[in-house]
Design goal:
By secondary structure, the chain is mainly α. The chain is built from 18 helices and 5 strands. This is Integrase.
Length: 399
């Protein structure tokens, strides 16, 4: 009504309200506020989201000494609950105003998971897990999921040994054999690898006198793995009730793509005209199934999110407003619907190549970028299956 009477009486309309952060006297706060406003316009943020981010910038930047950065712990605690922390972190990161002072969740988990061990076990086990996490001069860092799997395999045995012994060096080869005896299949293989990693690390660092896992072999690959027929792949592809799920299945079935490579696939990695794709840094041929699935998905992507700036091929309602990849849960939910995993389809693709290419480890390494030891395991399975086919083939009368 005030606006109406001003216009009726010929009075000038007051200037449009602006957030105080946009006109602040502090140049750092003013620059951060303008950058947040530009990001909001570029990524189609809700106006209330932009205002709340500006509120958060006022809270964390007001009174900040010149040249210092905002601690991440302060970003998580100070702003009110309506402020989008990921958006606020994005603004501060772009302007190099954020300092990550938090302890990663995996490091906190390592401290908590090993805290109940006796002193003779806590030190070598904790050092082993941290080396797995950070890597060293001769080993690459492992993912958090790998560390969780390794520790979950050996933890029951470590608890038992810690109750009977004072130090890890007292564990004998007999104890290792008794622990692995009841296990079979992939669980035995993973536990064996974890134990070899733990005791090999402890011996190299001088924490134990001898390695009780020396000469311990990981059992060969599971020969019960049977290649999937083309009809099964097509049936799984038809079960996918959305276009994103069909892209995931197609890339795993034709290019043996891992979940991470699919999640981080960008638009620049596609060359549909020449039927080429770059997965995990390796340029490959794009098959017919993947080509059709990607074309349909990209049409849907342009129609559903025409203004998104996300560079990744697969996006969702959440990631369309940012630049991050889809989550692992996004992929897992679609694969659970079809009753199969990306890893299962990927392994079948590699095994199928081993069967058709004459079980050549070098060929598998070049085509799929896998290690020689992994290619050798697939080759062993392929040779086993081919030998069974020859044994079961009916004899022919050459006369």
């Amino acid at each position: 009504m005030a606006f109406y009477y001003r216009r009726k009486n010929g009075q000038p309309v007051p200037p449009r309200w602006q957030h105080p952060a946009l006109t602040a006297t502090d140049p750092v706060l003013r620059a951060a506020a303008r950058h947040a406003q530009e990001l909001g316009q570029a990524h189609d943020w809700n106006p209330s989201t932009t205002r709340c981010v500006l509120d958060g910038l006022v809270m964390v930047l007001t009174g900040l000494p010149a040249g210092e950065r905002v601690p991440l712990s302060e970003v998580r605690s100070r702003p009110h609950r309506w402020v989008s922390r990921p958006r606020l972190v994005e603004v501060l990161t772009d302007l190099d105003l954020l300092h990550d002072d938090s302890v990663s969740a995996i490091r906190s988990w390592v401290d908590h998971a090993t805290s109940h061990f006796t002193p003779g076990f806590i030190n070598p086990v904790r050092q082993w897990l941290l080396v797995l996490l950070d890597g060293d001069a001769r080993s690459r860092p492992r993912s958090a999921s790998s560390i969780h799997v390794y520790f979950s395999c050996v933890r029951p045995f470590l608890d038992d040994w810690a109750a009977r012994y004072d130090h890890l060096r007292e564990v004998t080869r007999f104890d290792i054999g008794a622990a692995l005896g009841p296990l079979s299949g992939s669980r035995r293989a993973t536990t064996t690898s974890a134990m070899r990693s733990l005791f090999g690390f402890a011996k190299k660092r001088g924490l134990i006198f001898s390695n009780p896992t020396t000469g311990l072999k990981v059992r060969s690959a599971d020969f019960s793995l049977i290649p999937m027929a083309d009809e099964e792949i097509q049936a799984i592809e038809q079960l996918a009730d959305d276009l994103a799920g069909r892209v995931i299945i197609a890339l795993a079935a034709e290019n043996a793509a891992r979940t991470g490579a699919i999640r981080h696939l960008t638009l620049d990695d596609l060359d549909l005209a020449n039927r080429r794709i770059t997965l995990a840094g390796r340029r490959q041929r794009l098959g017919d199934l993947s080509h059709r699935a990607l074309r349909r998905w990209l049409r849907h992507r342009r129609t559903t999110w025409p203004h998104t700036n996300n560079p990744h091929v697969l996006i969702s309602d959440k990631t369309a407003h940012g630049i991050g990849p889809i989550s692992q849960q996004f992929v897992k939910a679609r694969m659970n619907h079809v009753g199969c995993s990306v890893d299962r389809i990927r392994k079948d693709r590699i095994l199928h190549e081993a069967l058709t290419a004459g079980a050549d480890p070098l060929h598998l390494s070049l085509v799929f970028g896998i290690s020689h030891s992994t290619a050798t395991r697939y080759t062993a399975v392929a040779e086993h299956l081919l030998a069974d086919e020859l044994d079961q083939a009916p004899s022919r009368d050459l006369n």
